[in-house]
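Action item from last week, closing it out:
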Amino acid sequence: MALLRDAKLFGEKNIQIKLLTKVGDDSVGQQLTQELESFNVNISSPLFLKGPPGSTTSFTTIIVSSNIGEHEQPTRTCLHTPGTCGNLTIEDALSVDLDEVFHNVVHLHSDSRHAECSLFLAKEAKKRGISISCDNEKDRSSKALDELIGVSDMLFTNSSCLIPHLERLDSELETERNRESLPKPIVKTKDSIETSDAATLDVYSRSFTPSAFFSRWYLEPKKHVVVTHGEFGALHFETTKISHVSSKDVQQEERRRFAFNEIDMFQVGTMLHVRNSCNDTAVHCQSEHSVRQVGILRGTHVVDTTGAGDAFIGGYLLAKLFGPSQPDDDDVDPIQFALSFGAWVAGRKVAGPGPRSALPKGKEVDEELGNTKDAIQKALVSKLSPFKCA
């Protein structure tokens, strides 16, 4: 994000990217600090901390294969070296001036590590009207992370990691609230949907799982879930409407006695929509969702996918927070714009080794995409493929 902020698209907004974390009192921590500063990441926050004297910084060595076939993807081997500096803690957060931490902050993003402190800071951000996002890579069996994904306004995840996590949470919440399990959803489609092949519809249905979970257990419309699918692209689900009604009040008496779970998919123009109706014999939930889609950067030779997800998230958030703010006469949808911009940034990143070597800079945004939202929108449409599963 910090490398992109000088693009003319973002004007003279003096965007600052601040990192809150803890590093060790060692050469790794010192090198990391210097590299962050060289990449224009602001480390002046009172919650960018150094561990106690002699403590070490955790790091991961990633070995990427290069001897692969023409149609094979590079493989990675990750070797993690834990440090002794510890995580950020709630005690750390309570020891500093939180008003200083959140001064001029417009968004807080968590990578789902330091979960207890991240949840505490997310709740403090909520009090101040600051939006929150979370990158949920996997189930860390953390009650704090379980709560954090519910508190977040926006959730980033990939196609494989979140469903087992949510299945566990579903089971725990059903036991806690004495609710029945929902059956596997029955998916219905309308003729208006451009694709009807079983594989793609199955991807849509599985990707909808997080939004269905939040709609069932939370009454918070406008929840955003972005599900990345690697070489296929990404799907963005925006919850637009939720209603919960006691099952005994549902007019169809014969239906409320049985648990059911139905998903209706239909298309209006280029926008895919999902309507979910489910009943666990205690609560009847209905929700509506808009689905945006994006493919990948055309013609990209994948060298290394390390950091591709983070690059996507950084590009998405920067464009969403500081790009077009609302649909206008030029039909620039701010969410689709952010989704496409994130895909372009990730596509550029995977063309080089390591997490940073191929990340685009602001000048490259101007040169390759343009310097106005309209020009960039047109360039993104031409450079990105449509989302597809084959």
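Closing note: The longest helix spans residues 334-349.
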